[in-house]
Design goal:
Elements (H helix, E strand, L loop, with lengths): L12 H9 L4 H15 L6 H30 L18
Helix pairs in contact: 1-3, 2-3
């Protein structure tokens, strides 16, 4: 009896979008979010596409929130007297 080949794990659509979004800058994620919001506001978009676009928009919004939070942390960690921070190897300012 022949053996079945093990199936490679399938990446869900959301996981794929999340992986793609993780490579985007804030500006790129915001632009992608803007495009998706335009599509969400289009009355002629089918319901299935609306649901998919909503999921994808949520992922881009999470990316924007993460990048804004990281920027806020680096700004709040500056020394108020010298307005300088320490740059670590991972390029985060503290």
């Amino acid at each position: 009896m022949p053996r079945k080949k093990p199936e490679s794990p399938k990446i869900s659509e959301d996981e794929s979008w999340r992986e793609d979004a993780s490579k985007l800058s804030y500006e790129e994620a915001l632009q992608a979010l803007d495009v998706l919001l335009g599509q969400l506001q289009d009355d002629s978009t089918p319901l299935a596409d609306l649901q998919r676009n909503h999921s994808r928009a949520s992922i881009y919004l999470e990316r924007c929130d993460l990048l804004l939070s990281q920027a806020e942390q680096s700004v709040t960690q500056l020394d108020p007297d010298s307005m300088q921070g320490t740059i670590h190897e991972d390029n985060h300012i503290e």
